[in-house]
Amino acid sequence: MLTFTQAVIRTADLVGINTSTDSQDLLNIQQDINQGLRLFKNASRRYWTRKEVSTSLIQNQQYYTFPMDAVRVTEVRANSSGLDFPILQVDSEAMFNRINIIPAMTINLPMYYWIRGRNEIGLWPIPSQTTSAGLIISYEPRLGDMSLSDTTTTTVTVTNNSVSVTAPSTSFLTNMVGMWFSVTDGSDGNWYQITGATATTLTLENYYQGPTETSASCIIASAPDIPEDYHLGLMYYAAFNFFMKRNELGSATLYKGLFEDLLQQYKEVYAAKTTGQVQASIDDYRYSLFTLPPNPIT
Questions:
Q1: CB of 89 within 8 A of CB of 23?
Q2: pLDDT average per 10 residues of sequence, the chain (298 residues)
Q3: SS (H, E, C) 60-120
């Protein structure tokens, strides 16, 4: 995996700037690397970053606010007694207003939703009672910028098959959530995303696979959360923009071509969530007990 800091340094080397003195150029490179990552994420329709939140359905409340990082809704569901029921989208404001003319129905599960503006969702029928975690929204999140430098100044205790990483003193920061962790002594080559952080403990998203160690050197870093095969594409995009701003069209064309080649490969490989079809597709209908064979199949 190429960390954000490593990508910035390698891009600076590609275009020939000094990381110690050319501060504005370095800032531009950082911004362009983040923009390149967005282009890769959008190419795969953000499958890698889908998020889901739930909130309570409130009695007599029709409109609810989206999370601040929501860009586009994927699916809306209502939960009742542990079962999720899809809510259908109404595309136009006029149609939603027509539905609202229908007399109130005594029903707690909304059947339709409409998106008002950029950050509100309206439900119909209006919930007739409050239901905890009754509204579930899946969405594409806004992508945050990578900005933090690598941290390599601490040693930690790691335990095989555990999600906890501990430090002997105050070594971690709460803003490390979302960053990536790896040991650097060669005992385990995996990267683990951090889902929780206190001053002395990190919580990993997956169980640590390496051997137990009480004084392991490590790195904590921001990193692109796309497959490592395409990390160079972010550097190529930043180099392309660097040379375009200087009207050096030959170099700009070279790096634009390298970027677009990797982006096209990425689209072809990761436009779908899976590597292949493992079973026949299932049509969207309810199964009927009357269509089952009368006897066991042998």
A1: no
A2: 94 92 92 94 69 92 91 91 92 91 75 92 92 93 85 92 92 92 92 95 96 94 90 96 96 97 90 59 49 46
A3: CCCEEECCCCEEEEEEEEEEECCEEEECEECCCHHHHHHHHHCCCCCCCCCCEEEEECCCE
Q: What is the pLDDT of residue 48?
A: 58
Helix (H) or strand (E) holding 54: strand 51-57
Pairing of strands 88-89, 112-116: parallel
The two three-digit tokens of residue 74, written as one number? 């994927």
Where residue 57 falls (left for φ over 0; alpha for ψ -120 to 50; beta otherwise) is: beta
pLDDT confidence of residue 42: 82
Query: Phi/psi class of residue 46: alpha, beta or left (left: φ > 0; alpha: ψ in -120 to 50)?
Result: left
Q: What is the rounded CA–CA span in Å between residue 129 and residue 108?
A: 6
In the chain, domain spans? 1-46+143-150+222-273, 49-141
Instruction: Print burial letters for 229-254: b (CB count within 10 Å at least 16), e (below 16).
Output: ebbbbbbbbbbbbbbeeeeeeebbee
User: Are 63 and 84 within 8 A, CB to CB?
Assistant: no
Residue 167 to residues 181, 185, 189, 202, Cα–Cα distance (Å): 13, 16, 20, 9
Beta-bridge partners for 217: 155
Cα–Cα distance, 229 to 216 (Å, whole number): 27
At residue 296, the pLDDT reads 46
Q: Which two tokens stand for residue 86?
A: 């899809």
220 contacts 180 by C-beta, under 8 angstroms: yes
pLDDT score, position 27: 94
